[in-house]
Design a protein that fits this description.
By secondary structure, the protein is an alpha/beta fold. It has one domain (6-264): Spore Coat Polysaccharide Biosynthesis Protein SpsA, Chain A, CATH 3.90.550.10. The chain has nine helices and nine strands. It has helices at residues 19-27, 44-47, 64-75, 97-106, 125-142, 158-164, 173-186, 210-228, 231-240; strands at 6-12, 33-38, 54-58, 82-85, 111-118, 154-157, 190-196, 244-246, 262-264. Strand 2, helix 2 and strand 3 (54-58) form a beta-alpha-beta unit. The protein starts with 5 loop residues before the first strand and ends with a strand.
Length: 265
Amino acid sequence: MNALRAAVLIPCLNEERAIRAIVEGALQQSPHVIVVDDGSSDGTVAALDGLPIQLIRHERPGGKGNALRAGFRRALELDVDGVLTMDGDGQHWFGDIPRILRVAAELPGHIVVGARLIGRERQPKIRRVANEIADWGIAWAVGQRLVDSQSGQRWYPRDVVALAVDVAPQGFVFEADILIEAARRLGTRVAAVPIEVRYAGEFRRSHFKPLRDFCRITSHVFGRVVEVGSVIRTYRIARTTPIQVVDPGGSTTRVPPDTGATERA
């Protein structure tokens, strides 16, 4: 099995306390690390001084979707097979990158999501409930069951990256739209790798606002479902098409009830 050539893309906004350790960890996994500073007003950029990365700076915050698109464009200039994204706030561990890439190599053409399933009881209840509802709705639009559709640690194959640069950047909705567009236009399937729930509350509060952003995502995704027509038929397809949950490390995986996931060690 050939190793995938991956660019690691890290969008960030005001992450001065966490960002250097995250980027240093990513550099251990790939020589191609792209950091998009989305208009930080703190010392985020200074914290990256001296690191061999590709840094894209925005003068003012434009939202996560805009930051990701800018990074995707840069990645397409590199000789890589795809892009692995991770957040800049400490939620994602660079040590999970090889596990995600291993599954991506086993499942060519799949989007591979780092699903926060290990230690899920530590996730704030409102976030957990919001994520489960989002999984249900986005799965309807994508056409298969999903686990942790809101996770920002993902592998995108190069053809999906090329598609994503043309997807409208609507904040946190952007990542849901990539799943939808890739499924509809490329027939892309989604797989999941269990990762640990990690909250770095000592760094800063999340930019994700559960109530506000959940409502935005839900209303947007509902519109994406309706636009296709045959709402009942697409719902049946989504509920009967499972997601592969692959744990290459062999650790215990707790799959949420009624996910329909199939688990393979």
